[in-house]
Structure formats: structure tokens, C-alpha cells
Amino acid sequence: MTKLLPGILAMAAIVVASNILVQFLFGSWLTWGAFTYPFAFLVTDLTNRLQGAAAARRVVLFGFVVGIICSLIGSQIMGEFGPLVSFRVAIGSGAAFLAAQLTDIAVFNRLREGSWWKAPLVSTLVSATLDTAMFFSIAFSAALTMLEPANDVSWAGEMLPLLGAGPVAPLWVSLATADLLVKLALAFVALVPFRLIVGKLAARIA
Predict the structure, then answer these.
(1) How far apart are CA 105 and CA 140, in angstroms?
(2) 110-149: buried (b, 16+ CB within 10 Å) or exposed (e) per residue?
(3) Can you tell me the distance from the alpha carbon of 67 to that of 54, in angstroms, rounded to the nearest whole number?
(4) Number of domains making up the chain
């Protein structure tokens, strides 16, 4: 457990920070949380590379529990339009996190014997896409209104040009697209700390 502590603390810090920063807008389509949350995939990949898939799953489980606690706290804090965390957002966040992180671990494992960059990059690209699709669909799609009928998310269904310039689509699709683009970009950026940290710690842990 001691060896897992850095990963657990890093994952917990990212989850808590992202839950706080998601309350603050960055431009028209993003929140500041979009720039911190993707590093959860880096923590998972580092743990997987240095300590194996089982250790990575434990770190993910701790992150999931921290996320649930954050959602419970957020559901009790009233904002201008109701609780800061609605039931749909809580379900979408938890389900997307768990499914995406476990997918990341599985894909990484399949590719771990290849080039050093392939496993972290491909696993993050796949899992980040899954994360975005699951969260925004569950939290805001009109097709899933039955999950929380009392929660009016009609604002998310407003038909607007995609990212202000593309074909007309529901607002939540623009939000999801912007979020995904950030995740994909940071997947490439994260290769730098991944390479540096693995290079420094691999021999020490071994």
C-alpha cells in the first residue's frame, strides 16, 4: 500500500481539483476542470507501467471513491440553479470515470510491450473518448431525461452551431467536443512527464 500512496494522492488531488474547477468557466465551451481532469489518465498509466495493472486498478478505485464523496458534497451545496452536482451529473461522472479508467488499464496492458509511447498514448486516446461520450450523454442528453425527470437540462439541448461555427447540434455536443479536444491534446502533452517519470522511477521501484 505504501508504494501506491503517491498514485493514490495524485489521483485524489486531481479528482478533487477537477470537481472544484469544473464550477469555473473557461471561454464559452470549457471549464477549468477540463485542464486538470485528463491528468488522471497520466496517473493511471504511470501506475500501470511502474507497478502493474492490479495496482493501477486500486488507484482508480480510490479515485472513484473520492469522486463519489465530491459528488455527495456537491449535491448538498445549492447554486444559482439548484445543487452544484445533480443526480445525472453524479451518475455520469462516476460511471464515465470508472469505465474510462478501467478501459485505459486494459488497453495499456495490451500494448505495454510495444514502443514506450504507444501504450500511454493509445490507451488515453481511447479511454478519454469513452469518458467524454459517457459523461456528457448521461448528464445532458435529452434521451436520458428519465434518469432525473425533475432536473431540467433543456438548456443543454439548445440547437447551436457546433463550437460556434460548425453544423447545428445540441449545446451539450459542443461542450463534449471541446472537452474531448482538450483531452486529446493533453494526451500528447502527457507523454513528456510520462517518459521522464518512468525513466527516473523504473529502476528505483524495481
Answers:
(1) 27
(2) eebeeeeeebbbbbbbbbbbbbbebbbbbbbbeeebeebe
(3) 20
(4) 1
Q: How far apart are CA 67 and CA 98, in angstroms?
A: 10
In the structure grid, which three cell numbers stand for residue 143, read together?
434521451
Structural domain containing residue 88: 5-205
Q: pLDDT tens digit string along 17-59?
A: 999 999 999 999 999 999 999 999 999 999 999 999 999 999 9
Q: Determine the 3-state secondary structure of 30 from DSSP.
A: strand
Which pTM value belongs to this model? Answer: 0.92
For 150, the 3-state DSSP assignment is coil
Question: Cα Rg for the chain, rounded, in angstroms?
Answer: 17
> What sections of 29-140 are H helices per DSSP?
39-51, 53-75, 87-111, 118-140
Element (H, E) at 78: strand 78-79
User: 97 with 128: CB under 8 angstroms?
Assistant: no
User: What distance in Å separates the CA atoms of residue 139 and residue 156, rounded to the nearest whole number?
Assistant: 10
Q: Which CATH number fits the domain that encloses residue 77?
A: 1.10.1760
